[in-house]
Design goal:
Oligomer: heterodimer
Number of domains of chain B: 2
Largest interface: A-B, 42 and 46 residues
Number of strands of chain A: 0
Strand content of chain A: under 5%
Low-confidence stretches of chain B: 311-315
Helix content of chain A: over 70%
Shape of chain A: globular
CATH class of the largest domain in chain B: Alpha Beta
Shape of chain B: elongated
Largest sheet of chain A: none
Number of helices of chain A: 26
Strand order of the largest sheet of chain B: 6-7-8-3-9-10
Low-confidence stretches of chain A: 1-9, 148-194, 199-207
Structural class of chain B: alpha/beta
Mean pLDDT of chain B: 84
Chain lengths: 657, 315
């Protein structure tokens, strides 16, 4: 039978494989990903050796054996690097078996992390017995959930289908697999046996590859557990940290594996498991909110575990939305829950934040809500705000939102986002280390009082070459391709022939670039926060808020300029150069201001006053001092509005040229 | 009811006249072929209809909405496939279609269904998760078509939907267009003429910005003549033919690989009547052997070349 009817028959397995293949734009040989993976394995091995060495030293004892030989920093660094490299391999290997191997690993890590977290929470609330019972029950449930896709795939896939993982398994083998799967639901050892049996079917093709992958999986799992345990020296308090790490790693690996999965059952299983994990985390968050609001009204609002649960609920639900597609019903419900919950809690917290201190003042002499919910209440506010935005963006039918979403995602489709984020993280880290060094010196010499560091000390972090450079250099880099790329490839025509107005398109691109900038710029603020909350250094953090808001509006003018210049040319380089020139032009008042200062012109003259108000660095400094002047914000907003208006006219000009 | 109505449309690019007083209309449910040599103004006319650019003078209505005044409503009712099919290379097929559906304001509850429908309809289900940059030309064309269809517009404007496809893909695309023609109004530009003969009910030939010809395809193809090759003295045959009722003109043509004594004629008849039987009867009565007696319809290709070349030389 050689009838040719390509469209009525099943799709070509090879085509399907390729359709789900790794997200690479250019073809790379498989050796690249594999060598990266092997290097990751090597690092992981190194980490294990270091840990073992430390453990042996402390066990054997001897002079200063209390101090570990390899510092925790090295161990954490190596394990993080190892996981990152393995992740690269998991995402980019072309072989489906290997990607599935990583997927299974991700399931295991995720379950371990979830169990750990739940165990700890229940332990905190109701004690050991309840915790163990819960862990056992949830363990059974999660194993059942994990095994179900195997059971189903074992049933559904017949060897003829070709693209199935069990293509090499005989029918009898499949039925044995099904039975053992049901056994696995009942017992843990059964689960392990089932897993190993299925593994054998799964790999089938290349035993060497299979062994390497399996080894990698086991090692990663082991390392995560051991690193977490050792770093924390077996303290219960470390369980949330270990679980969080496991949850994040599991989430990342599972998401990648599921995105590139050809088998629909596996995909759905992963997708719904992520959704349910998100809902469970949501429930935990709700539990903590109830506890913090009702049971203990004095606390800093929201314990860290509640916050972590909130972050995880957001991440897991986002992963589900990503997998299921934002138009799916399940995504809609997830986003709706985020939206409603975010709005409710945001409103509630804002009201309470406003009312409680006043109430406390009038009603009681002793009861004081501690520090006005700072800092956890503030972080919670940010969290629910993000939840609200995520929900809104997913649910919304608005065209502007659609364009903003695409533009934001477009940064992540190409290496731009990763380059910018990595670059910013590195220079922020350099700046942070310098800053801590300065503070350390100042602290040491405090007796001599030679150097006086005045609050806000964050100004020494932000008032430097690197942050100013980052602030100026990044917006044109983000905006240069917005319109010029669409012009060059001709997609602008397709975009504008959709029933969407030019203003919406321009605003969408503008907000897309701005949102990405806000996220990237936010990296700078993580370091001072770490300094305050993790290292327990009480400094005045409030200027960070005004500075973030201020700089967010400062770049509005740069981005507006950039959008305009990218609309007038179809060459990205020209767009970037023109945007940099524009940014420099905005610096002219600053130069004039310096001139005036050097010339010693009086501060009373109106020109001097105006120039000072328009100087970017003066504004920058005032934001750092916690001063947020409306005229500064309006200045930048009006420049942006002007250029966005011009951009709309440029787009419309095709009609009257 | 006219879904597309164009009156005296004129477009200057600077001093260059691209479209010159073009008028035509397309009725509901019609598939109209929009033909013309390269640079004739097809794409410009289509771009005006899609509201991407605007005309210098004249007006056009799409689905009853003016392209200048009510461009949003026009775009809501129109699916457009540009010639080069520009797509975002970094997106995946499914993602792209979902994004476009959202942009074209397809309701959330409809969106999944519409996307599934167009994926199925344009036969791109197997590549739904592929990066667009990795697609072949044929698949990109189909993704573009799926995008044009995703908001279920009553009118489709397709600019050379088959250019750059292999013959198999061309046939598939044509079949799809014919299917779509059942519940959509389609304006289709191309310069591959057999395609037009296959799917279109009506053609508009545009040359140097002006409409050179527009008519129903059946009307255009009605013009026919009879070709005759017979072994006989030329004058006698001519005399005989003139006696046949309904013959309008007789023209001698050179004989292909002519044998001795063979002569050839091209006979035009009144009202394009088929006189082959009458002619053969008379010739056979004379005992002249006939090598060929054939009714030749005018092909679109001949017409196209005639119309466009004639205009070009006249100008």
């Amino acid at each position: 039978m050689t009838t040719l009817a390509p469209d009525t028959q099943k799709p070509d397995p090879r085509l399907l494989e390729e359709a789900y293949g790794p997200s690479i734009i250019e073809e790379r040989p498989p050796e690249v990903a594999r060598s990266v993976g092997v290097f990751g394995l090597f690092l992981l091995l190194g980490t294990l050796v270091m840990l073992a060495w430390n453990a042996i030293r402390s066990a054997v004892g001897g002079p200063d054996s209390k101090l570990p030989f390899f510092s925790n920093n090295w161990i954490v660094f190596c394990s993080v690097m190892a996981i990152a490299l393995l992740y690269y391999h998991a995402a980019f290997d072309r072989a489906l078996e290997i990607r599935r191997g990583y997927g299974i690993l991700a399931w295991l890590v995720l379950i371990a992390g979830g169990l750990g977290g739940l165990f700890w929470i229940v332990y905190q609330w109701w004690g050991t017995v309840a915790a163990i019972c819960t862990a056992f029950i949830t363990g059974l449930i999660s194993v059942a959930v994990t095994v179900c896709p195997w059971v189903n795939s074992g049933r559904n896939e017949t060897p003829e289908e070709g693209l199935s993982m069990t293509s090499e398994a005989s029918p009898s083998d499949t039925s044995v697999g099904t039975r053992s799967a049901w056994a696995a639901v009942l017992t843990w050892p059964g689960a392990l046996g089932q897993f190993l049996g299925r593994w054998n079917n799964l790999i089938g093709t290349d035993i060497v590859v299979a062994r390497i992958t399996f080894g990698a999986a086991a090692l990663v799992l082991l390392t995560i557990v051991v690193v977490a345990m050792l770093v924390s020296r077996f303290q219960w308090q470390a369980l949330p940290t270990a679980s969080s790490v496991a949850l994040i790693v599991g989430l990342a690996f599972l998401l990648t594996a599921a995105k590139h999965e050809t088998n629909e059952v596996w995909r759905l299983a992963a997708s719904y498991a992520l959704a349910w994990a998100g809902y469970i985390a949501f429930a935990v968050l709700g539990l903590y909110i109830v506890r913090d609001l009702v049971v203990t009204t004095d606390g800093g609002m929201f314990s860290p575990v509640g916050l972590l649960a909130g972050i995880f609920s957001l991440l897991f639900l986002l992963a589900h939305i990503n997998l299921a597609g934002s138009d799916a019903d399940s995504s809609y419900y997830a986003a709706m829950i985020c939206l409603v919950f975010g709005a409710l809690i945001l409103g509630l917290l804002s009201v309470l934040r406003a009312l409680l201190p006043t109430l406390a003042f009038y009603l009681s002499d002793t009861w004081r809500p501690s520090a006005y919910f700072i800092p956890n209440g503030l972080l919670a506010l940010i969290l629910v705000l993000v939840q609200l935005i995520v929900g809104l963006v997913t649910v919304s039918n608005n065209q502007l939102v659609a364009i903003v979403r695409r533009e934001l995602l477009a940064y992540f489709y190409t290496p731009t986002a990763y380059l910018v984020l990595a670059g910013l993280a590195i220079i922020a880290a350099i700046q942070y280390l310098t800053w801590v060094g300065i503070l350390h010196v100042a602290n040491r010499d405090i007796s001599r009082r030679e150097v006086i560091f005045r609050e806000p000390i964050v100004q020494y972090y932000f008032y430097g070459l690197l942050p100013v450079f980052a602030l100026l250099a990044i917006p044109p880099f983000l905006t240069m391709r917005l319109f010029s790329e669409e012009r060059r490839t001709g997609t602008l025509e397709v975009l504008l022939v959709a029933p969407v107005s030019e203003t919406t398109v321009v605003l969408g691109k503008f907000f897309g670039a701005w949102c990405f900038f806000l996220v990237a710029w936010g990296l700078w603020f993580i370091f001072p926060l770490i300094f305050r909350f993790l290292m327990d250094q009480p400094f005045d953090y409030r200027p960070l808020l005004s500075f973030y808001v201020g700089t967010a509006f400062l770049v509005v003018s740069f981005i507006g300029l950039g959008v305009f210049f990218s609309a007038i040319t179809d060459n990205q380089v020209i767009a970037a150069v023109l945007s940099y020139a524009g940014v420099l032009a905005l610096f002219v008042p600053q130069l004039l201001h310096w001139q005036f200062t050097w010339a010693g012109r009086g501060t009373g003259e109106w020109l001097v006053k105006v120039v000072q108000q328009l100087s970017l660095l003066e504004q920058y400094e005032s934001f750092l001092q916690g001063q947020l002047y409306l005229q500064h914000l309006l200045y930048h907003i009006s420049i942006a509005v002007l250029f966005l208006f011009l951009t709309v006219r440029v787009l419309e000009s095709r009609k009257w040229k | 009811m006219a879904m597309i109505e164009v009156r005296d449309l004129t477009k200057y690019f600077g001093n260059v006249l691209a479209v010159d007083h073009v008028s035509f209309s397309v009725d509901k449910g019609e598939i109209v072929g929009f033909l013309g040599p390269n640079g004739a103004g097809k794409t410009t006319t289509m771009r005006i209809l899609t509201t991407y650019i605007s005309a210098t003078s004249g007006w056009a209505k799409v689905a009853g909405y003016d392209v200048m005044q009510q461009s949003r409503e026009v775009r809501q009712n129109l699916g457009y496939l540009p010639e080069q099919v520009p797509l975002y290379p970094e997106m995946r097929v499914e993602e792209y279609l979902h994004y476009r559906a959202r942009l074209k304001q397809v309701d959330r509850r409809q969106r999944n269904r519409r996307v599934e429908y167009v994926l199925e309809r344009c036969r791109i289900v197997p590549v739904r998760r592929r990066l667009i940059s990795s697609l072949s030309r044929g698949y990109r064309q189909r993704v573009g078509l799926a995008d044009a269809l995703v908001h279920d517009p009553p009118i489709l404007i397709l600019d050379e939907p088959t250019s750059g496809l292999d013959p198999g893909q061309q046939q598939e695309t044509l079949n799809l267009i014919r299917e779509l023609g059942q519940d959509h109004t389609v304006l289709l530009s191309t310069h591959i003429l057999p395609e037009v003969e296959e799917v279109c009910q009506r053609v508009i030939i545009i040359n140097q910005g002006r409409i050179a010809l527009q008519d129903r395809l059946s009307q255009l193809q009605r013009d026919s003549h009879i070709v005759l090759e017979v072994k006989a003295p030329e004058q006698e045959v001519r005399r005989l033919l003139q006696q046949v009722e309904g013959v309008r003109a007789i023209q001698s043509v050179p004989v292909e690989d002519g044998a001795d004594g063979l002569c050839a004629f091209q006979i035009e008849t009144c009202d394009n009547r088929d006189l082959r039987l009458a002619i053969s009867e008379r010739l056979l009565r004379q005992g002249w052997p006939i090598r060929r007696l054939d009714l030749k319809r005018q092909s679109l290709r001949d017409l196209f070349i005639q119309v466009t070349a004639g205009r070009a030389s006249a100008a």
